Structures are given as structure tokens and as C-alpha cells.
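Worked Example 4.2. Read the sequence first, then its C-alpha cells.
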Amino acid sequence: MTSYDAVTNQTWNNIGSIKAIITPSLEGAYLIRKSRITECSWNSDKTAAIMILAKYMDIESGPLWENCREPGFCYSVSLTAEIDEGTLTLELYDCSDLKSAFNAARQTMVDLIINLILLVNRLFEF
């Protein structure tokens, strides 16, 4: 059964799957991973937070840059929130070590989310 979303005009069968292009002659690899953002629309109260988080992660010398680019795992990394599509897209460009670049990006995002949860809990303790 195909899961089709008429709003975004796309199917969600491959969402979360990883598409990678490995070019051994150039010793580089490229990765694109899309994840679906649930309850995401321009009217949602979560939209601004998602966009700010994605932009923070995406800035040069930001968390993804420091953990993926500076160690030399990849040349460039980006995280984009597409509200109209309802997706969050991670892209890794020209990876010398694709597995390490992906693991560093994933761990960076996990650590950031955990730290945000801890911060919110501390700020709103009664």
C-alpha cells in the first residue's frame, strides 16, 4: 500500500531512507536523508522552533559544521526544514568518510535534543 500525501504531492514510502552516491574515483561520497516532520504546517506552533533549530544546526561553524566538517569527514553539511513539504533534510557533501560523517551528524542532533530537553526541564522546575 502506498502512503500518498495530497498536500505535499508525494509518497512517504521511502522517507527516512538514505540515498548515497559513492564515487570511488574521486574518493568522495554524497548523502541525502529526508525525515518527515509530523504535525508540521505554517499554522503549527512547532514550526518556528523547527526552523530555528534547523538553521542553528546549519550555520557555518555551528554544531554540524564542527562535528562533521572540522574533523575532515565531509566538505560540507546542511540541515534544511521544508515546511511546505513537511520534511527535514540532512545533506552531506564530498565525504571522505561517509559512515563517520553520518554518525557524527546523527550524534550531534541527538546530543542537541537531549541538551534542549534538560535545559527546558531546568528552566521550568517549580
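Now turn to a second chain, presented in exactly the same format:
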Amino acid sequence: MQRARSISDALSWGIDRIDSRSGTDGQYDDSGVTGSGSLVYILDTGVRISHQDFGGRAEAGWSAGCPTNSESGCGDANSGWVYQGVITEATSQCNGHGTHCASTAGGATYGVAEGTTIITVQVLNCGGSGSTAGIVAGIEWAVADSKDRGLPAVISMSLGGGGANRFDAAINAAFAEGVLSVVAAGNSNADACDYSPASTPLAVTVGSTTNSDAKSGFSNHGTCVDIHAPGSGITAAWVGSDSDTTTISGTSMA
């Protein structure tokens, strides 16, 4: 069934923009494609899965800092890591980046695929830092979990840093298992081919645009960028409460 969502001034212009080849009309039309029956793994800072924008479709997953769920100190925002990647009221001072990205991908109000199931995979701590090994382990966990569930899956990674090709092997292995990785181009106004995972050929690398269809000034660019999407001034869920929102910019939002 085809559905259209009206876009109020409080909501993101971005989802309005992507449902047509040009312009905005104050609505987001999903053309009947809601993502129902699919999985999106958010590899990020953790997700407040109880947020109302997820409508019960966001689930606990895995944390690089608490891989067995028995590590001392996990679940305390001061440690930087939360059990199964789940941000709660007690850890709501954690960075909301992952919650915002999850909302943009699959939120009922702010998201593109409002029917998908969101799985949180914390590969960055509450301060937004992580390791190559932790991110690779998160990719591998997501692939294994998606195989267990037997559903179409996408990995979303709005993260990265300097140095090309650090994640190629893990992303290529995921692709071989039928799991596509969608990654942020980066926010340095530089060549995305100098960053990872943006440089990985088998990932879909996304740059950011403004509401006038121009490249956002911060967005990385170059031949490693596959597509552009709205990333400037994007409103989505945040971590302060189950109704919290914020408006931020970045290729992460695209």
C-alpha cells in the first residue's frame, strides 16, 4: 500500500527531497516500499531503541566494548560502552549520533524505511571513538546475525577516518554474504578516496547535499562517492528522552 507522510516545518526536508527527481512538495511518498521484512544494522555510538520514532522496531544487538555482556563497567556512560549497544535513560548522556542515524534510516516519522527493523551495533563509544578491530568485529557480528535471521540486510556505517582500505576485507566479505554496506563519505571537504570505509569499492559511499541540491560545503567528494543525499540541517531522533529530537548536519545524516 502506498503511503504519503506530510512534512511539517519541524520535520526533515530531506525525506521530502528524495522521493522525486526534483524539488519538494511537503510530503514523503514511500511508493509502498517501507523496508518491512528487512534489517538495518546501525554501526555507531549505540541507539536509544525505546525512542518513540522507532515504534518498537529497534532491537538490541552487540557492543565492541561489551562483547560478552559480562564485562565490568559496561552499561555505565562513564565507561563509554553500553550493553548490546542499547542507550537507556541512565546512559542518555552518551552521544546521540547513532540514534539520529537510525532515525534517519528507519524512523516512523523521520526515516526513509519506516518498516525496517533496526539493530544497534555499538562500535564507537559514548564519546564517538572506536578502533579498526572493533568496527571489523561489528561488521562480522552483523553479517552472522543477519544470516541467523534469514532476512535481507544492510549495514549502515556513518563513521570513518584517514587512510584508505582499512575495512575493505570485512566489507567485501559482508558483500559476498549478501549484506551491503552503506557508508558516509566524510566531512573534510576532501577526496573521499583518502578515507576509510568511504574508499571501499564494494561499499555505497554517500556524500551530502543542501536543500538547494548543492554539495554541502563539508562533504567529501571525488570518484569514491557513489551517490549524494540530503545531509545539511537534518532533523531526527536524539537520546535525551524517548521523544527527543535534534537537527544536525553531516554526511552521516545523508
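Notes for the reader: The chain has one domain: 44-248. DSSP finds four helices and 13 strands in the chain.
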